[in-house]
Design goal:
The complex is a heterodimer of chains A (418) and B (172). Chain A has a 22-stranded antiparallel β-barrel. In chain A, strands 11-14 form a two-stranded antiparallel ribbon. A two-stranded antiparallel sheet of chain A has the order 12-13. Chain A has helices spanning 2-36, 330-335; strands at residues 42-52, 56-67, 70-79, 83-95, 98-107, 112-124, 127-136, 140-141, 145-156, 159-167, 170-171, 179-183, 189-192, 194-195, 205-215, 218-227, 230-241, 248-257, 262-271, 274-285, 288-300, 303-310, 316-319, 326-329, 344-356, 359-370, 379-391, 394-403, 406-417. Chain A has 418 residues and is mainly beta. Helix content of chain A is 10%, strand content 64%. The radius of gyration of chain A is 24 Å and the shape is globular. Chain B is an alpha+beta fold and 172 residues long. In chain B, 17% of the residues lie in helices and 45% in strands. Chain B contains 1 helix and 14 strands. Chain B has one helix at 2-30, and strands at 39-43, 47-49, 52-60, 67-74, 77-78, 80-83, 91-94, 98-106, 111-118, 126-134, 141-144, 149-153, 162-165, 169-171. In chain B, the strands form 2 sheets. In chain B, strands 4, 5, 6, 8, 9, 11 and 12 form a 7-stranded antiparallel beta sheet that branches. In chain B, strands 1, 2, 3, 7, 10 and 13 form a 6-stranded mixed beta sheet that branches. Chain B is globular, with a radius of gyration of 25 Å. The chains are: A mainly beta (418), B alpha+beta (172). The interface between A and B is large, with 74 and 58 residues. Strand 8 of chain A pairs parallel with strand 14 of chain B.
Chain lengths: 418, 172
């Protein structure tokens, strides 16, 4: 009985929130209507079809319309194996003195409201302010949840101060990955930058960053993040510390973290038109400073090569979210639900972007080397992906994963826009 | 003079009103109930492509650094009951660091058991196991007996307070 009442209450609140969103959007659109009558609307559409081994056919249809300063967009995602998976609506424009944007995600196959987020960007008294707001529906495990966060950027003398005040929500940044709404049966997900599932009510966290201070000619910055459990981390960064090499130097980050302290040293050197970076990762452990891995990267003329190497697999791993791999602490990967394969010890990644007669093309080859692999050079698996323009607003994309036991994944996609 | 005052009065409240409205709207939403913190185990629906099927097993809100080991019953008393699925064809793969240590599927009884663990840490939110198999009937089912499932956290503690969730979506 208690659960039923609570469920009803949650349902009413969700319904009220959705009604508010719809009302705001309608009044917003209505208000803009008068100004929009003299502006010819620009309409566009896109269709992406993707077929893969064992995953059926995926169809994503995008529709959009720009009228004056306002842009409306719709995304429909259908999987042949499970049906109509996602329907998302988005709107972006201006409201008074603020730039505003909002997204609503629905689950058509289950007729559920899943997620909504809003963003207002405005200038107040010399401050650049962002208000992020999010609502997670009761149909999503972890919900219902609501919250907002305010990020304010200001300048004091030569210093840039960024304050993020969290009221039940966290915003994606260098230290936080935002939130995914995941479909349980397929693992497919939609990513959003505002996560309203921060524990607690009211003020749930505060992050303060001060950048641009200079000490003995070395630029630096500091960030502290406090939540309801106390100080989560404190990081001090020194940038471009001269190493004596021409056009070279290194960045240094010392981080006190509740999950483990670390010291990161990032030498970099600009050689000709190329940029070569070596980023060893050290961890402070008791009396010692341990080298747990490194990232070596070089880029020139649209080609980026990265070598990510793990030396202490008990504490560090290679995570694969976002392509080209990252060296990450196990605790961070777990906390942020990043994908990884515990057997991978090294990743060599080559990404190429080039312009063709029909637009921009790109290709990616990731090769993983694994501990215990009996194959040549301990090769474990390779992932290739890419897209090329075919002209006439059509592009062809592909992705494949092959391991020691053969081809695991193969996807071919066709995108047409008009 | 009056004109200047009126212009000021028009300009200033616009930005301030927007800010107050946005904060008011946002503020109204921030003080409702706390998000749920219960640990959950989720078994996905059977996804069928032609004659092959798959099931994803995921966790959410797992305490103690996340789930690091999982046991689905034992041989003769498996936690997985299969129907419309060829038990002999079942393959289990660990996700996000999980490695399947042992698995046994009994064709006659249509049930299965397994033990899996993570070698590098726990999984708080995300997939831990992926089952793939051949489908033999029109409505294949993959049912987990909750009472026969054991979970252990990365802090080497039993996770006793958890529930099976049947929500179609989860946040991570």
């Amino acid at each position: 009985m208690r659960r039923t009442t609570r469920g009803r209450r949650a349902l009413h609140r969700s319904a009220a929130a959705i009604a508010t969103i719809v009302a705001c959007a309608a009044s917003w659109a209505g208000g803009l209507g008068a100004a929009a009558t003299s502006v010819r609307p620009e309409v566009w559409a896109g269709l992406e079809l993707r077929a893969g081994i064992g995953s059926g056919i995926r169809s994503i249809v995008e529709l959009g319309c720009t009228t004056g300063p306002t842009t409306w967009a719709s995304l429909s995602h259908v999987e042949s194996t499970i049906g109509f998976l996602w329907q998302e609506f988005g709107i972006r424009g201006r409201l008074g003195g603020a730039s505003v944007a909002a997204n609503v995600l629905l689950g058509p196959s289950t007729a559920d409201f899943l997620f909504a987020q809003g963003l207002a960007t405005l200038q107040v008294g010399g401050l650049d302010a962002e208000v992020h707001w999010a609502l997670l529906g009761a149909a999503v495990l972890g919900g219902p949840a609501r919250g907002f966060a305010v990020r304010a950027v200001g300048r004091v003398g030569g210093l840039e101060v960024v304050s993020t005040t969290e009221m039940g929500a966290r915003i994606e940044d260098d230290d936080f990955d935002g939130m995914d709404v995941v479909h349980r049966a397929t693992g497919l997900s939609r990513h959003y930058e505002t996560d309203p599932t921060a524990p607690g009510r009211g003020l749930t966290g505060e992050k303060l960053t001060v950048d641009g201070w200079s000490l003995a000619g070395i630029d630096g910055g500091a960030t502290v993040y406090v939540n309801r459990a106390g100080v989560e981390f404190l990081a001090v960064t020194l940038e471009d510390v001269a190493s004596g090499l021409a056009r070279g130097g290194f960045d240094l980050e010392a981080r006190y973290d509740i999950d483990g302290d670390s010291l990161s040293l990032t030498p970099h050197a600009a050689l000709g038109g190329r940029l070569l970076t070596f980023e060893p990762r050290f961890v402070v452990g008791g009396d010692s400073l341990d080298l747990v891995g490194f990232v070596l990267s070089a880029g020139w003329n649209g080609v980026t090569i990265r070598d990510v190497r793990v030396l202490d697999p008990a504490r560090y791993i290679i995570t694969t979210d976002g392509g080209q791999g990252r060296l990450e602490a196990v605790v961070d990967a777990v906390k942020n639900s990043h994908e990884y394969d515990e057997r991978s010890r090294e990743l060599v990644s080559i990404a190429v972007v080039w312009s063709g007669p029909a637009g921009e093309n790109r290709a990616l080859v990731d090769t993983y080397f694994e501990e215990g692999s009996g194959s040549l050079l301990t090769w474990g698996k390779s992932h290739v992906a890419g897209a090329v323009g075919l002209g006439g607003r059509t592009s062809l994309s592909w992705a494949a994963m092959a391991g020691t036991d053969g081809l695991d994944e193969l996807e071919i996609g066709l995108t047409v826009s008009w | 003079m009056v004109f200047v005052r009126r212009v000021k009065a028009r300009v200033r409240p616009r930005g301030a009103t927007t800010l107050v409205l946005v904060l008011l709207l946002s503020g109204c939403t921030a003080f409702w109930e706390e998000p749920q913190g219960t640990a959950h185990l989720m078994v996905g629906d059977v996804v069928v492509t032609r004659t092959e099927g798959s099931v994803l097993v995921s966790v959410a809100n797992m305490p103690g650094g996340g789930a690091a080991a999982i046991q689905f019953g034992s041989v003769g008393a498996g936690a997985v009951s299969l129907s419309g699925i060829d038990a002999a064809s079942v393959q289990v793969e660990g996700c996000n660091g999980f490695v399947v240590l042992a698995a046994a599927f009994d064709v006659a009884a249509g049930e299965g058991a397994l033990v899996a663990a993570s070698g590098v840490g726990g999984v708080a939110d995300g997939e831990v196991l992926r089952f793939t198999f051949d489908v033999t009937g029109p409505h294949p089912s993959f049912v987990l007996a909750e009472a026969r499932v054991t979970l252990v956290s990365a802090a080497s503690l039993w996770i006793g307070d958890w529930e099976v969730a049947d929500a179609a979506y989860y946040a991570r």
